[in-house]
Amino acid sequence: MTTKPSSDLTTFENPRPERDFTIRIDIPEFTCLCPMTGQPDFAKLVLEYVPDKLCVELKSLKLYMWTFRERGAFHEAVTNEILDHIVSAISPNFMRLRAEFNVRGGIYTTVIAEHRNPDWQAPAIVNLP
């Protein structure tokens, strides 16, 4: 195989830094291993962020997610680790990672972690009739 997992996240310049906009990335095939049993855990990840100066490139994000396939990780830990790593790479104004893990032993787990730049003010919500 020529493509391999990689922890390197490639970035590119925000094409419209003067405007707040939201990027939403659905990652429906995330896998890691249960640290207790070694069995695979499957999740759908939803990454939403308001970029500042940089955006994350999608192929590098895919290869980054692939690095977790053979790693044991608790749901709470892996969700926060992923958020921290992407925030470190692009320093967004706001980022939310929602990790919806498939059922395991009759229990579904959803972990939501957020980052907010303290210097950023979210725009006011506009309600249309």
How much of the polypeptide forms β-strand, as a percent range? 35-45%
In CATH, the homologous superfamily goes by the name GTP cyclohydrolase I, C-terminal domain/NADPH-dependent 7-cyano-7-deazaguanine reductase, N-terminal domain
CATH topology: GTP Cyclohydrolase I, domain 2
The number of strands is 6
Helical stretch tally: 2
CATH architecture label name: 2-Layer Sandwich
Strand count, sense and barrel status of the largest sheet are:
4 strands, antiparallel
Low-confidence stretches: none
* First-residue to last-residue Cα separation: 53 Å
Q: How would you sum up the global shape?
A: globular
> What share of residues is helical?
10-25%
Any idea how many domains? Answer: 1
User: For the largest beta sheet, what order do the strands appear in spatially?
Assistant: 2-3-5-6
Order of helices and strands: EEEEHHEE
Please tell me how large the radius of gyration is.
Answer: 16 Å
Give the helix/strand class. Answer: alpha+beta
Mean of residue pLDDT values: 96
| Level-1 CATH class name | Alpha Beta
Pfam families: QueF
Family: Belongs to the GTP cyclohydrolase I family. QueF type 1 subfamily.
Pathway: tRNA modification; tRNA-queuosine biosynthesis
Protein name: NADPH-dependent 7-cyano-7-deazaguanine reductase
